[in-house]
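Q: Start with the shorter request: fold the first protein.
A: Done. Sequence, then structure:
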Amino acid sequence: MRLSENNAKLFVISAPSGCGKGTVLGEVFKNRDVFFSVSCTTRKPRSGEVNGVHYHFIDNIQFEKMAAEGKFLEHAGFVDHYYGTPKLPVTENLAAGRDVVLEIETNGAFQVKKAMPEAVLLFILPPSVKEIDRRLHKRGTEEEEVISKRVSEAAGEIAKAVDYDYVIMNDRLEDAVEDFITVMNGVKSGDGSAERFRSDNSDTKKLIEEVLNNA
C-alpha cells in the first residue's frame, strides 16, 4: 500500500506506557492541522477517557469481525487486550493531503511500516525503566499487577527503538516537544534537521543503551 503522492506524512509514535507520550502529543498538536487516528481497543476505559476520542472501545466479537474483514491497518494483542488501527480514516486523510499520526505499540508500528514503507516511525524514550514504574504508580489508574506487567515489558519495547526511524527522549517536557516538532518539520521539509534524532546515529544508540542500563 502506498502513501499519498502529496507531501502528507504518516507518523507512527510508540513509547512504553507511562512515558508521557500523551502529554507530549497534546502539546505538539495544539497548533497543527493533523488527523490523530483513534484506535480500537477491547480494554475498558480508564477514568476520564471518552469513547471515540481516546479510543473506540469495542468488545472482542466486534474486534475480531473487523480484523477478519481486513478493516485494520494493523492490530495486535497487548497486555491481555486487542488494539487496532482502522484503515479507512488513515488512507482517506493522507489522500486529502493531511498528515496522520498513529499512537501505537511496537508490533503494530512494524506492521504499519511493512504495509506503508514511507511511514515515519518515532519512538519516545523514558529517562529510565524505573521512571516508568514511578509514573504509572503516580497515575493510579491501574492495578498493581497490570503496572508490574507493563514495567516488565517496557525494557523489551525500548530495545526495539533501534528499529524506528527516529528516537527522542521525554525527560523534560519542553525539550521533548521541541525535539518532536524538529523531527516532524525536518521530515516534511527534507532539510536534514531531523538527522540527529535518527536511530542509527551512534549518539542515539548510546542513549537507548543508557536507558536500558538504568532499568
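Q: Next, the second protein, separately.
A: Sequence, then structure:
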Amino acid sequence: MSENWVVQNLINALNVWNEKLTEIWKLITQSPQEFNGGGIWAVVLNIHGALQALGYGLLVLFFVAGVMKTCGNIAELKRPEQAVKLFIRFALAKAVITYGLELMLALLDIVQGTVSTILQASGFGTPGATVLPQEIITAVEDCNFLQSIPLWAVTLIAGLCIWALSFVMILSVYGRFFKLFLYTAIAPLPLSTFAGEPTQSIGRSFLRSYAGVCLEGAVIVLACIVYSALASSPPTVETGTAAVTMVWSYVGELIFHMLILTGAIKASDHVVKEMMGL
C-alpha cells in the first residue's frame, strides 16, 4: 500500500465498503437458523414455544367472541351447517398456531430460493469490488505539500461519507434479520386471531407483513446486483485535470453510486410494502 496518507485514507474507506458489501452478500443468502451460529434462533424458538400456550388461550377467547358477534342467538348454533363451519374455523385456527412456525419457514424458504435464482441468473458470484485507480494514486503521490492540503480535506470528507454509508447499509440488512426473529417469536399471538371472524384481519395483516419482510431479501440482492454492474464500469478518471479535481470528480461519482445502493437497501421495506399494498 502507498505510504501517502491521502491514498491510504481512500483505500481504507473503500476496503470497509467492500467488506460490508461482501458481508451483505453472505447474509442475504443465509437463513435465520444459521445467523450468528444459531444462538439467537434457539432463543426465538424458546419464546415462540412459550407463547404458543398463550396463543391457544387467546384462540378460545377470540373464537367465543367471534361466535357471539356473528351468531344472533343460540338457535343458529344448532344449525348443522353453522356448527360445522365454526368447528372447521376453530380446527384451522388451532392448526395455524400449532404449525405456524413450519408455515413461516416454508414461506422464507421460497423467498430464499427466489434469491438464489436471482443470483444465478445475474451471473455475479460475488459483489463487485470498488478499487482506487492507479492514475489517481500516481497523481496524488506526485503532489507537493501545499497541493496536498485540499486533497486532505476532500479525502477526509469522502472517507467519512463512505464509512457512514457502509454502516447504514449493513445495519439495514441486520435490521431485516431482527424483524424476522421478532415476527417468528411473537407469531402465536396474532395467528390466534384467525379463530374469530371479526378479528381474522389481524392475522392476515401479520402474515402479509411477514411475507414483506421475507421479500426484502430479494429487493436487497437486486440492489446489490445493480451496484455490482455499476462497479464493473467505474467512473472515468479525468487525467488531464489537477489532482484535487481528479479525486473530487471520481470519488464524488463513486459516492453517488454508493448512496443509491444504500438508499435502495434502506428503502427495501417501503418498496415491498408498495408492491404488496400494505
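Q: Describe the second briefly.
A: Residues 55 and 189 are 5 Å apart (CA to CA). The mean pLDDT is 82.
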